Amino acid sequence: MKRRDFLKGAAGASLMAVCPVTGSVGARQAPNKAAKLSPGRPTKVFLAGVGRGATEQAIKLSVRQSAESATDFSWLSRGDAVFIKPVVNSGHPYPATTSPIAVAAMVELLKEKGAGRVIVGDMSGVENVRFSSTGLTGSSRKLMEACGMAKAVQASGAEMHFFEEAGWNAFYEDIPAAGSHWKNSLMMPNVLKEVQHIILMPRCSRHIIAGSTLGMKAAVGYWRHDTRLEYHRDAATLQEKTAEGNTVETLRTKQRLVLSAADKILTTFGPDKGYVFTPETGMIIASQSVAAHDMVSLAWLLDNRRTIPESQRDDFMDTSKLAPRFANHIVVSWLGGWGPALASETLTKNDLKTIWDDRVITHACEVFGGVPGIVLEPANKALPEDLKKRLGQMTAFPA
Fold first, then answer.
1. Which CATH superfamily is domain 38-313+353-393 in?
2. Fewer Cβ close by (within 10 Å): the C or N end of the chain?
């Protein structure tokens, strides 16, 4: 049963029956970190405008423009191996998953710059792929084929890699920054040891549990399912652990660029289904900083949520405090059974009226050394000045 259909069938009485139990079992209060933030270093985020209905070649050009504005690729030596981490949470098309056109454009650009192996890979959400030391059901490969990304990856000359296919023991321990909320090391896929560089390519989307799913949330796709179980079971600090998951050594030392195609936005519900909005001018967002990227990407999500038709809002599923808690219990049950699900902590979903409501971002500002001073730079001439100004105001350091 799909997550959205299950939740719609579980009406208010069911939610009220489950959620109060979990509030008293092992819950920890997540600290309120939005109030005391320190300014960090100026950080550039590059925006390339993409017109509604743009051709594939126009989108690829915008991806190239934003990537080449954000980095000079001096880190890439001829023959280096590069891993591209998209989001293939499901088999639904972009923007429920990463844009295949953007991924193909990045592969082509890396090949031009001298990369040797370019590997594109992920492990899909537990709704579709169940993975343990004793078995496997579902296939990330089939989901990448279903969403249209596999065809684009193969045509561009890259390899595909799916973490579950390598087996339970094809993961290694990586440790987040000191003082994190994680109890255990994070289990990361061995393929990352085979590459010199990582490019993260998320999407811009609402998320029923987390509030939004942007760059930092995409790290979940790396994790073996025992790591995902801790992440969802200890739900009081799920947002903080999302940020901390991006501080492991592999990502700190190898991730070079974060780039999102955001000419389409999944503005409600998420992560797999919701209202797809296509603005008159979409964007490609690129930065070397995942925190800065996510600040701008979330501002872009919120900006577009204001303009979607009221009739398209899924009011209960999109705004309920109880639905995400119940959804998280379902995820824990898929990962570890009903025992851990009933004993799991209470999740509090971000309100997301502004980007400063997002605990992933505010905690990232702490663990990465302060709030990035966002400097928005146009990567092409198609970016409207008023849009740049509006996003600048939404991401400015709060006085």
1. LarA, N-terminal domain (3.40.50.11440)
2. C
